[in-house]
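Postdoc handover notes: sequence design on the structure in folder B. Input tokens:
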């Protein structure tokens, strides 16, 4: 069978169709999570197993209790948490910032 594209809404996005994605990364681990960065504001949204409390509904990703915005680049990883470089150049890996400045 051919893949079928479906339209979904994002949690906390006012019921609007989920779109406006600038970049997307599928987790390299067996946990099946996906994260996307929106073109407007660089906010990160994740879904899939271990990615959000809403399972397969895109949900704003938070780190340290704050929604992540201004993502510069998504990185691959094999962790529970997404890896990314923020707009300050800081590497965020496994749920916290590190001194590493490039994607692993």
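Designed sequence:
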């Amino acid at each position: 069978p051919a893949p079928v594209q479906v339209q979904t809404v994002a949690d906390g996005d006012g019921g609007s169709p989920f779109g406006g994605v600038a970049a997307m990364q599928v987790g390299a681990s067996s946990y099946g999570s996906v994260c996307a960065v929106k073109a407007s504001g660089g906010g990160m949204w994740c879904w899939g197993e271990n990615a959000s409390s809403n399972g397969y509904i895109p949900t704003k990703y938070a780190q340290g209790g704050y929604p992540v915005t201004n993502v510069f680049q998504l990185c691959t990883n094999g962790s529970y948490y997404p890896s990314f470089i923020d707009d300050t150049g800081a590497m965020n890996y496994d749920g916290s910032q590190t001194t590493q400045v490039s994607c692993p």
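Context for whoever picks this up: The mean pLDDT is 76. Don't rerun without checking with the PI first.
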